[in-house]
Amino acid sequence: MIPFFKTKKRNRRAAEREHVLDVRLRATQSRAARLRVAGVSLGALLAVATIALIGWRGGKFLLDRLVYENDAFAIQQIEVRTDGVLTTEIIRRWAGVRSGDNLMALDLMRVKRALEEQPPVQFVAIERMLPHTLKVTVTERDPVAQAMVSQTMPDGHVEQAIFDFDADGFPMRPLDPSWRTAPPAPNETLPILVGVAASDVAPGRQIESAQIRAALRLIAEFDHSPMMGFADLQRVNVALPEILQATTSQGAQITFSLNHFDTQLRRWRLIYDQYQRWGRAITSADLSISNNVPVRWAALNGVPPPAPKPAAPHRTKRKNV
Question: Is 95 exposed, middle or buried (0-12, 13-18, 19+ CB in 10 A)?
Fold first, then answer.
């Protein structure tokens, strides 16, 4: 006969084994369920990704065939408008656009950057006109002064280079004659800036020199000042610190400070009128001094009259096709 306590011990061990087996079974079932859920989720994700990829590639294919490679949007006309003298041919060459290119696939910002990188061009507007026309509107830089700059070449010799400057201080080389719709007028001359260093000039980059910027402002304001028509600025020396020394075509030397040109030009006109009444011509005046203006003069009959200056041409937009 088996003792009671041994039977009880065996029953307890059997119960413990059954509990362990039950826990293991539930863990196995839970792990299997998680794997099934993970597999279903991964399959769904792959299916969605595959559908999205097919849709994207299919959409791109349709977009290319229907739009970007469609001959219905081939450029047949490039309409160019400019307010200056550049020819249609040179503007098209700089733009890098040809007839037959797809109008919708064209990168308008690339065309705009390519044109505005050219020193004679100030601003460009590009517009698509469906289905076949590209419209290009160009604003050109208008030169107001010129300078001859000594440049040291790689082989060591020094070469003289001519640069034009617009009123905002952007330098550019004079236009190639083949780029112009018409040659410049024979008497169309620009004031000369004297004392411009090669380090001051970088085509396409605005001048940083305060002296040169001030000289360009002086030239621009002179054309709308009371002295316009009574004298003209032939040269402006920018090499002297804190002042500008202008020379007129009559040989007079007029000194300016770097600011308040409108006030200085009005004072010049007042002095000019007074000396005209006295029968005298100004040979030098220092307008940079505010309290007293040192003036030198000569007899009026010994000074040649100012050379007639051609009026600035009115720049109207020109349409080329």
Answer: buried
